[in-house]
Records
---
Amino acid sequence: MKIKYTLIKKDNNTKARLGKLETNHGTYDTPMFMPVGTNATVKMLSPEELKDVNAGIILANTYHLWLRPGEDLVAKAGGLHKFMNWNGPILTDSGGFQVFSLANPKDISDDGVEFKSHIDGQKMYLTPEKSIEIQNKLGADIIMSFDECAYYPCTYDYMQESVERTLKWAKRGKEVHNNPNQSLFGIVQGGEFKDLRAKSAIETVKMDFDGYAIGGTSVGEDKKTMYEMIDNCIDYLPTDKVRYLMGVGDPLDILNGVKRGVDIFDCVQPTRIARHGNAFTRYGKINLKNAKYKEDFTKISEECDCYACKNYTKAYIRHLLMVKETFGQRLLSIHNIRFLIKMTEEIRQSIENDSFDEYMQDFIKKYTNK
RNA sequence: GUGUGAUUGGUGAAGUGGUUAACACGCCGGAUUGUGGCUCCGGUAUGCAAGGGUUCGAUCCCCUUAUCGCACC
């Protein structure tokens, strides 16, 4: 069956929404944060550890799994869930973001996109049909339309062309999508141009997808612009479908997204910065490699209930990072993911209590004051 | 004891009689938003063992001392 979103409660003071998402692999509350597991693994974490941090949906990537090990192999293994031993829900990104990160503008045509494989430089060709076909074989609960995440900044004319292209691609993908157990999401583009965002949203909604994503943010624009991008399209999205802000997961951005009516987020930030020695705390991000933590025998965060905070000190984790033991990176990855997920738990609670606005102001005050 | 070769930052080292002593590692910071995992960007020796001399000018040439290595007695 398809996913089913139910709006449980709307916040009084903001557009924040409390919702419920039913999937073939369990029911989860929104707003939620989805950890990213590009290569069918959330880097450094086992599925058991993901359960421990109370993860819901996790992300995998079409482009990466297409190259290795190949969608046919995953299908042969019995699908992505079985292959990676994750029985929670999975969402696969379409490979659209790799248009942004791997291809040149000249390689993008209305038909599809030519990539150079990041592994061996081989030419690869991805089309909306191909992306959906791969995703059908991978078997995630939610699959994404193949879109163009345009460069920022780009001209109005280019963005207009890009939005048209993404709409056509969405339509083509929807036509070939043939797995009734997978929900297909459309993606709103349009950059910072208000009318293009509106048009993209309206036309995408007309195609009637199972959920809607806002793409093309966090590509180099400032925060104000990013929030405007959301504001400029979110009211065109139906209230009875889930809304996903792609690639966003900075704590402050999650709050601002929720405030504007976003339900789900994903981001590589918690795991990437963890591998580089950084941890989220209520009082801002800290760098565990800093000399000041050398003899700091306290936990990363007093408020945190994660495995790392329950058992280890900053001094020990710093030591692991300094000697390049990967256990340090693992502990920080666990902590950072738990930090964001716990944050969404509190956000939900605050919406339920009609105190989201207060929660957000309080969080920002602590997080930015230091 | 005699002869001989060395001595450059936290480490391994390059280098030249003349503006800011290369590079690497380490260390100290910073970045990181649909992941091309262990990356990227900065900073880091007011000084070349110590003292004296030659020179317009010495880390580089000379002398003495110290330390270390090698060879011989």
---
Amino acid sequence: MPELPEVHTTVEGLKKVVIGKTITDVWSDFHVKTAHGERSNIKNKKYFADFKKNVIGAKIKSVERLGKHVVINLSNHSTSSWQAKNSIIVHMKMTGHLMYGASDPFVHLIFKLKGAGDLALSDMRKFASVCITETKKVKNHPGILELGPDPLKITFEEFRARIKSASWRRPIKTALMDQSVIAGIGNIYSDEILWVSAVHPLSRAGEIPDKILGVMFANTKKILKKSIRHGGDSMSDYRNAFGEKGGFQNFHKAYRKTGQKCLKSKCRGIIKRLIVKGRSAHFCPAHQIKF
DNA sequence: ACTAGCCCCTGGGAGC
DNA sequence: TGCTCCCAGGGGCTAG
């Protein structure tokens, strides 16, 4: 599922091929029921009609990542210059991925680009959300306004303060996955970070010693960067901007390894699974310490 | 201030 | 082979 490394990989790929391209048409069959609070996206027919109007004729100026969101900044032609105006905000949720010049049976949104390939959104389970807003309002957009800082840019002091201030008693896995604490970590990376750091997912965030938090901080950056180097994680449906799989699924130590022997050297544990805040947590009860 | 539980969705795996 | 049932989960929401 697209978390920080996957969204990063997608954005870096898109940067190479879509910047400067003009959108000539948009197609979508993404008109399904929308969950509560998700009505303001292209799954709503009326919203899509407005979206289409705003997007056709615009030029892609830049692509960036904010947490797990892909932000595509557009510019519109004015008499004097190309000016940024609107931004498309995509959250790929579970099975979504943006692809350039590639397709698969689950494409539900296509941007036709002038003199170039199509930019398509594939999403088997249709959880993705696509919105448009004025570029200057992106930072205040629901879902982005609440985002905490980026774990790749944060300092240890900030990391420590945010993890501890979230809630004294809340499970560390919950804090790591809370996008308002730190933006970009989901189920795969929280499991992997905690396994490597030897911290039990149910440890109370406020009780983890600073020394251990320091280890977690270093491992967070290390693991996210390692996944980026391998093009993200394709255990599920993730594909990069060119429809290719990433490789980080080959390095999992805990995620979806329930019942398997712990891979830590000399550890004799068996990976267990439990539910934390409605998500499955995979961990080794033998070496991951509960604080 | 928090959590449990439900909702959106559908391919894939297990069991028969 | 093909049916049914269950599972995967990000995040928004409500109820407790």
